[in-house]
Write a structure and sequence with these properties.
By secondary structure, the chain is mainly α. Helices cover 57% and strands 11% of the residues. The chain has six helices and three strands; from the N terminus they run H-H-H-E-H-H-E-E-H. The chain has a three-stranded antiparallel β-sheet. Helix 3 packs across helix 5.
């Protein structure tokens, strides 16, 4: 076990923490995912796709946005692994990934919204 000496001693055992701190790359991966969700439109699209599978045209109608604008957000979400797509004929359908990462973010978003959003009728 390596011993760590910090500039300020606060009588806290830091060696154990420092032995288990993840590498910087792990934090960069996490930051990249949160960056994808830093846009409220992308969070909304991701949330919709956690609850249903839809094509770009229908997502565009739900979001009241142009198809190219929605396609841009879908590309970003897909590149981060939060959503997946499959084709049926000429149509491409999108849905949230079944990965633990996507499911955890979905639950986190709903919990944060439940905590911080004003409920209707209140």
């Amino acid at each position: 076990m390596e011993h760590y000496t910090l500039p300020h001693q606060h009588n806290q055992p830091m060696s154990q923490l420092m032995d288990h701190i993840p590498e910087s790359e792990n934090f960069q991966t996490t930051a990249n995912i949160f960056k994808q969700l830093s846009d409220p439109t992308r969070i909304r699209i991701f949330w919709i796709l956690c609850h249903c599978e839809e094509c770009v045209i229908n997502i565009s109608a739900m979001m009241d946005m142009s198809s190219p604008a929605v396609a841009h957000h879908l590309r970003l979400l897909r590149s981060s692994g939060l959503i997946e797509a499959h084709r049926e004929g000429k149509e491409t359908y999108y849905r949230a990934s079944k990965s633990k990462k996507a499911q955890t973010l979905h639950h986190m978003i709903e919990q944060i919204m439940d905590i911080s959003c004003i409920k209707r009728g209140e």
